[in-house]
Design brief:
This protein is an alpha+beta fold. It is built from two helices and seven strands. The chain has a three-stranded antiparallel beta sheet, with no helix packed on it. It has a two-stranded antiparallel ribbon with strand order 1-2. Strands 3-4 form a two-stranded antiparallel ribbon. Strand 3 and strand 4 form a beta hairpin. It is globular, with a radius of gyration of 12 Å. The termini are far apart.
């Protein structure tokens, strides 16, 4: 399910890995096996264990322990 900033949701049938490849060049990053996030919409990061992203819409997304170092590197480049 894609969640949009205006609150709309879109259910898709393709796997997340296909969208990961398509959206990577547009500022998206796969932070967890179940979550692909637009880096521009991250409000803050909790750095416990894997971590937790807080997005500007008020939602929270878990970060996998393996993806956390790369995520922090990507954010530092913004």
């Amino acid at each position: 399910t894609f969640h949009f900033i205006n609150g709309d949701k879109l259910l898709v049938s393709k796997g997340l890995s296909e969208y990961d490849e398509l959206l990577e060049q547009h500022g998206f990053f796969r932070v967890h096996q179940s979550h692909l996030v637009n880096l521009a919409f991250i409000k803050r990061i909790e750095k416990s264990e894997g971590g937790l992203l807080h997005l500007i819409d008020g939602s929270s997304i878990p970060v996998s322990i393996r993806r956390k170092p790369l995520l922090l590197e990507m954010i530092s480049k913004l």
